[in-house]
Amino acid sequence: MPELPEVEALAAFLRENAVGHVLARADLAAVQAIKTFDPPLSALGGLEITGAGRHGKFLDLDVSGLHLVVHLARAGWLHWRENLPTAPPKPGKGPLALRVHLDDGNGFDLTEQGTRKGLAVYVVRSPAEVPGIARLGPDALQIDREDFARLMAGRSGQLKGALTDQTLVSGIGNAYSDEILHAARLSPFKMADKLTEDELVRLFDAVRATLTDALQRQAGQRAATMKGEKRSGLQVHARTGLPCPVCGDTVREVSFADTSLQYCPTCQTGGKPLADRRMSKLLR
Ligand SMILES: [Zn+2]
């Protein structure tokens, strides 16, 4: 899933390649992707793209005061296309959700792999009209240490859930929360409101360092190469069974109904494996 660094890099890419161009036409290929009807998608046609930015994990294209807001969900992505075909795409077939044509014949496709569709497109007059944006907590790269400590102290629940809750702090998802907790040497199951002063400092510094580092690696990447760049920088996320780059211990996993987390026991949990209900069910 694209998180803060990837969405920020996509926004930067669009600032360089799309801003200043007229949005000629937007073709909807996946009817369920669009979540708004007023203004209609067609209202964007013929308007100049004047900006591209990010709210948490939402991408925001400013089209002369109207906003095309996109949430890429779990398996969505943006593909820059040169010389797009002019014929409208066939709806409901394949991964294409939305195709945006610019006045110079280039443009981009929003696509989503898999059968569970979550990619969401909004056309609004203000980004705050998107419910998911209105609910966002402070941005993970903007929040200062005092506010971060206050939010964590007020949260009863595990760190993994706290870091990925967009209403608490926005921009961090499943991958970077694993990476942040590994960098901070904290268990994903530790309670957010039970952190010591030292642990809070470590966690805050890890948020900054992990996201800044990922952003620097993504900067200047073409949209097509960002995913590979993200994967190459990961220490524990999606690395179950591989050695931890810090200590050499084996990276372990905890599975949930539709997601999983990865961690290093030596670095994060005093060497103890965390309970994994699915694994123990399988072994019973
Ligand atoms: Zn380790």
| Order of strands in the sheet with most strands | 2-1-7-8-6
Mean pLDDT: 93
Secondary-structure-based class equals alpha+beta
Tally of DSSP helical segments: 9
Question: Uncertain spans, ≥5 residues at pLDDT below 50?
Answer: none
> Largest sheet at a glance?
5 strands, antiparallel
Shape: elongated
Q: Which fold name corresponds to the CATH topology of the largest domain?
A: Helicase, Ruva Protein, domain 3
- CA radius of gyration is 20 Å
Q: What is the CATH architecture annotation of the largest domain? A: Orthogonal Bundle
Tally of domains? 2
Which hetero ligands occur in this complex? zinc ion
What is the strand tally? 11
Order of helices and strands: HEEEEEEEEEHHHHHHEEHH
Q: Which CATH class of the largest domain applies here?
A: Mainly Alpha
| Helix percentage range | 25-40%
Distance between the termini: 32 Å
Strand content: 15-25%
InterPro entries: FPG_cat, FPG_N, H2TH_FPG, Ribosomal_uS13-like_H2TH, Znf_DNA_glyclase/AP_lyase, Znf_FPG/IleRS
Catalytic activity: Hydrolysis of DNA containing ring-opened 7-methylguanine residues, releasing 2,6-diamino-4-hydroxy-5-(N-methyl)formamidopyrimidine
Family: Belongs to the FPG family.
GO molecular function: 8-oxo-7,8-dihydroguanine DNA N-glycosylase activity; damaged DNA binding; DNA-(apurinic or apyrimidinic site) endonuclease activity; lyase activity; zinc ion binding
Could you characterize what this model shows?
The protein is α+β, with helices and mostly antiparallel strands and 284 residues long. 29% of the residues lie in helices and 20% in strands. It has a 5-stranded antiparallel beta sheet with strand order 2-1-7-8-6, with no helix packed on it. A 4-stranded antiparallel beta sheet has the order 3-4-5-9, with helices on one face. It has a two-stranded antiparallel sheet with strand order 10-11. It has helices spanning 4-17, 131-134, 145-153, 159-164, 174-183, 197-218, 226-232, 265-268, 277-283; strands at 22-28, 47-48, 51-55, 58-63, 66-71, 76-81, 96-102, 107-112, 120-124, 252-255, 260-263. The two termini are 32 Å apart. A hairpin with a 4-residue loop joins strand 10 (252-255) and strand 11. The chain is elongated. It folds into 2 domains: 4-129, MutM-like, N-terminal (N-terminal domain of MutM-like DNA repair proteins), CATH 3.20.190; 145-282, Helicase, Ruva Protein, domain 3 (Orthogonal Bundle). The chain contains 9 helices and 11 strands. Helix 1 runs parallel beside helix 6 (197-218) and helix 5 packs across helix 6 (197-218). The protein binds zinc ion (ZN). The site of zinc ion has 7 residues, from helix 8. Keywords: DNA damage, DNA repair, DNA-binding, Glycosidase, Hydrolase, Lyase, Metal-binding, Multifunctional enzyme, Zinc, Zinc-finger. It catalyses: Hydrolysis of DNA containing ring-opened 7-methylguanine residues, releasing 2,6-diamino-4-hydroxy-5-(N-methyl)formamidopyrimidine. Its cofactor is Zn(2+). It holds the Pfam family zf-FPG_IleRS.
